[in-house]
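Model it.
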Amino acid sequence: MTVQRAEIGLCFHRTYPPALVTEFARRLDVGGADHLWLIEDCFYTAGVSLAATALAVTERLRVGVGILPVVARNPAVTAMEIATLCGLAPGRVMPGLGHGVQAWMAQMGARAASPLTAFEEVMDAVRRLLAGETVSVQGRYVTLDQVRLDQPPAEPPALLAGVQGPKSLALAGRVADGLVLAEPAGPAYVRHALGLAGREPGFPIATFSAFCVLPERAAAYRVMTPWLEQRLTEAGPVLRTLPFYDELAAVYAERGAEALAGLPPDWWGEIGLIGTMDDALAHIAALEEAGAHRIGLWPSPDVDTARADLDVVLELARR
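Modeled.
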């Protein structure tokens, strides 16, 4: 199997001021990065408006939305939003759709009793609308009566699924055009997700990756220790696919957060682009080998630090 070179880009932190998106998008565009991912987490900043802004101030940069919760908008509106973005920048839009965090969906009265059914119905309706069809459907969650977009995209974009659970990944393998895998989606998780989706390497995979590159490994490990501690506290499905997860959890349980900075370099190297530039390049190569096509890097939530991180992202994109 030929290993495909992965595109490198940046994830726009949900806590950044919205106006910062123009600065970051322009720097990524001019500097040679491949893409920018806008994060739509409730109740921070909105993905579609940020994406439109980023597309409007760039010439070649691909812009992704990761992810649009399928129950937060009517599917006709979701399709209309995606079609409008495609009209602004044909070929540069990467829409990601998913369940959304269920607690957030419940907060705004949009939680579906069957998230899988809602996801499948919305994906089907959005796909058909973007293809220019006139859609009538009476489903459990989607009701449309002779709905047709006035300006569907000439080339509909791939619809990517941002999901995690085994049943959701299996469904995404059938109804989506690719996957968006949340951080820390290392090589082991890419292979795991492909297996659950029932797809072979070559199926489009975008990963969101933990990221801290410094001249000395130890310094990068110290910076990322609080982040890793939070992930261990959450014990999410992505982290649990690490081949050394049980040992890692035991270290944390027995010795606390201070011990995390002293984890072996190969553990940190599986978790993300954490360490030196050589470590980051090795992690990218491992992701490519596992089947990742696009890698979105998470910079620091601190804006000034993120500006410096962006320079490293550009260097990695030009590797």
